[in-house]
Amino acid sequence: MSWLSDTLTSTIGRKLVMSLTGLFLIIFLVVHLAGNFQLLADDGGVAFNEYAKFMTSNPIIKTASYGLYAFILLHIVMSIALARKNRAARPVGYDKVKGSANSSFSSRNMGILGFIILVFLVIHMRSFWFEMKFGTMPVDEFGNKDLYLIVKEAFSQWWYVALYVVCMIGLAFHLSHGFSSAFQTLGINHKKYTPFIKKLGIVYAILIPAAFASIPLIMFFNS
């Protein structure tokens, strides 16, 4: 297993792991967004509760979820390790003017943006996932845990909606750099298709977080 140890301790290996886990999470966001859109169905939450039940009871989905949690943790651990190694190798730091000219806001602040997302994940998981798994929840007319009611209550509070939107803005900036950076780390870098990947990354970084943010906004103003 020395190859695994070498991979997880080398800069290149850590970047590779971050890229692969990042791309997996990018795909997951699309799937998660499709599920969240069930919140907007005009059925009193029936579709969303059915979706939530399926996601928490299907053996295949549950197994995939454990993989997702592992990938999130691995992505965080690798990012912290890389940040610490980079800081140790560059104790003085780059000139701010030069750094601003040669890099984007997102690339310079990936650590801060990642921390914002982490805080959001902790709050989000505590509010919904934890309640779904371990909380005492009401049930809907079909006997399913009424997670929709919990979400509706959360999205009726302006501060939670504001926090959600701010964190989605942070996610947008994080994705705007991370999307194309992941492909570049994997060696997918060519003058013919790299510009397309960068443009696709920008479109993705705008549309997906905006779509996520639209759900609590719609529910708040319709409550």
Automatic annotation (TrEMBL):
InterPro entries found in the cross-reference section: Cytochrome_b-558, SQR/QFR_C/D
Q: Does the keyword Transmembrane helix apply?
A: yes
Q: Keyword annotations for this protein?
A: Membrane, Transmembrane, Transmembrane helix
GO cellular component terms, A-Z:
membrane
**What is the superkingdom listed in this entry's lineage?**
Bacteria
Which SUPFAM superfamilies does the UniProt entry name for this protein?
Fumarate reductase respiratory complex transmembrane subunits
Q: Is Transmembrane one of the keywords UniProt gives this record?
A: yes
So where does this one cross the membrane? 20-40, 60-83, 110-129, 158-179, 200-221
Enumerate the NCBIfam families for this protein: sdhC_b558_fam
What is the protein name given in its UniProt record? Succinate dehydrogenase cytochrome b subunit
Q: What is the lineage of its organism?
A: Bacteria, Pseudomonadati, Bacteroidota, Cytophagia, Cytophagales
